[in-house]
Queue: 2 jobs
Job 1
Amino acid sequence: MNWNRRSLAKAITLLESTRVDHRIKADALLTEILPSTGHSFRLGISGVPGVGKSTFIETLGLHLIAQGHRVAVLAIDPSSTVSGGSILGDKTRMEMLSVNEQAFIRPSPSSGNLGGVASHTREAMLLCEAAGYDVVIVETVGVGQSEVAVAAMTDMFVLMQLPNAGDDLQAIKKGVMELADLVVINKADLDSAAAARAEAQITSSLRIYSYRVQSKIPHWTPQVMQMSALKNFGVDEFWQRVSEFKRLEVGNSRFLGRRQSQSQSWMWERIHDGLKAQFQNHRKVRSQLPAIEQAVLSGQLAASTAARQLLTLALQTDST
Ligand SMILES: Nc1nc2c(ncn2[C@@H]2O[C@H](COP(=O)(O)OP(=O)(O)OP(=O)(O)O)[C@@H](O)[C@H]2O)c(=O)[nH]1
Ligand SMILES: [Mg+2]
């Protein structure tokens, strides 16, 4: 297939459609392109609003394009699933990258739950790979579960922090820290002493959180570095670290292992979501649900018994 940015954008729109005939076409397309996917480096980037994600991705993207790469940027914005609007992926703040022929920028799908949005983004990532983008960046704001979703679809997960983060460890949620392969302290130009403090503090907390077993096989351990995306300081070093991560993880087969387990979890996640949707739409379930739920609330029926009754209804082959 011959792709340009317009046909890629149209194909992604097809993937995001909820129409049944579109979904059939989209699945056929995914199956067709699958052999040409997987050849990119998938980089996840997360951080609180204003940390400098857009500034960094623009600087990094242009840097990579200058080296001959083609860069796609996809966004998962948890707020868009609530408001229907997209605060991420704003092209205005990646002005130079968005007009570059070697870049493709796509904002977050603006409808559906996080699971659905994440699934669309994964599929969009496959399309970008088939279209020849060899670096795919998936961006998310550091709120809610979206970081888990991004870490679960990328080869390397990067958490961006502000220099003051180390002072009170405010934005550093333990769970998110555990996901990070690399923590970048951005805006180091504003306060170098604070950035150095943050680096030391985050380095020591990473050691605490890091539960990775010691092994003789060389492997990557989470790292911390300083950067100024605005002043283009540290961006070169960032990519060197990414390359080192890739070299090590490909060498010890963890790279492939991570992708395989991601695909497997993705399949099961979609099965669970699909079953749940079918359950909720099942005619008999819908008609019985209010009464059964009420019986649970008033203490007449044990919750587990209610669940079994509803599941029995849903699993009856006659779904009319
Ligand atoms: N001094 C300094 N300012 C920066 C740096 N990186 C980004 N900024 C500024 O910080 C502000 C926010 O940057 P963005 O790149 O829009 O941040 P973001 O993380 O994409 O924010 P959201 O899209 O709202 O989540 C802008 O005014 C940038 O110019 C940096 O390294 N140093
Ligand atoms: Mg932004």
Job 2
Amino acid sequence: MQRLLVFVFAVFFAGAAMAASGKWFKGNLHTHSLWSDGDEFPEMIAQWYATNGYDFLAFSDHNTLQRGEKWAPMSTPARRAAFDSYVKRFGTNWVQSRWGVITNSDDTIADVNWVKLKAFSEFAPRYFKPGKFLLIPGEEISAEYQRAPIHIGGINLAELIPPLKGTSVVHVMDLNVDAVYQQRERTGQPMFPHINHPNFKWAITAEELMQVRRGQFFEVYNGHADVHNSGDDAHANTERIWDIVLTRRLAELGLPVMFGIGTDDGHHYHDWLPTKSNPGRGWVVVRARELSTPQLIGAMEAGDFYASSGVELKDIEVTRKTYHVSVRKERGVRYRIQFIGTRRGYDSRSEPLPSQNGKELRATRRYSNDIGVVLAEFEDSSASYNFRGDELYVRAKITSSRLNAAEQRGTNALDPKLLEKNPFAYQAAWTQPVVPRAAR
Ligand SMILES: [Zn+2]
Ligand SMILES: [Zn+2]
């Protein structure tokens, strides 16, 4: 309990100190390359982010830290086209390739061009521009439980963490999250785990996610085409999951808040389609003293950042009395600011989903509307919420009238019905939950 109090205290006062200092840095923490199942060379990906308004980028290939020797076969027309652009951009002095055989799935043998992938330590220094751009190593620790993907982003790891097996979804999350913190404690290198895409293959329910003791971050928005941020008839969307997790951690489990991040989970860098997982869809903006990995991690752990799928904020300021947010306005775009939270004394009843054909559905339970209620709403580009004192937590969501590129449907007016059906239909920003003083 002591530890919880210290933590909540820290979060609150981190919030209180927010307005004081720091610059905003935009980054993506979830990126795949040819080192795993992405379709582009890491240097080309770094180049894309460095020239598209980002300040930092973490790579997170499946179960690899982009170290050692790896050769990729240019065995498809798409890969050969990627190779041509790669050579054109970096030249034959940099690119290393050789011809060799490949065994096809039908056991025939073909001659293909193999390209040596550059290790993180080789290409990262090329992109490091002090105060301007930074690459961070990482790994998507890709564990599973009974074929359900349990993926944990390990940011700034010093050593590879092979995915650990466990006896339940929660156990697998706990083991892999703890492995990151154990490595951090052992090496002294700042690093953190974030729990990826809970709705990917409907792997993780809110009741499971909330139990991860050291789970401080999860992806409330992931830009991958198949991760179901918006849920479906049977499954809660990831924003709803967040509110359930926050409410039950604070009210029942004695655990601290969990922060929500936005990421790309980019895999596809050639075909730009809503059905592909392209870069530029989800990110975090972190307020830090300077652009360095330790500073970014420290600020994120203090909750001094927001997740975005398109909305840029001018300021977030939390004092003892007030939660204030303001938007960096874009011409012709309208904004809605909602302060969302759960009040003490909420109706905590929940029920499981009706079973289908006698089979119990593995899905988040249904809760009352007291959880994650809209405490106040403003049609404006800046707004303040005065804490009443009975809130377990308060967070803000800022929705713009601009449709989310990855969710191209509906009209271009902020349609409340569409928003209710799909909280990700429009571009948005999500600020972090704060525990008001009186709730402690
Ligand atoms: Zn994943
Ligand atoms: Zn991924």
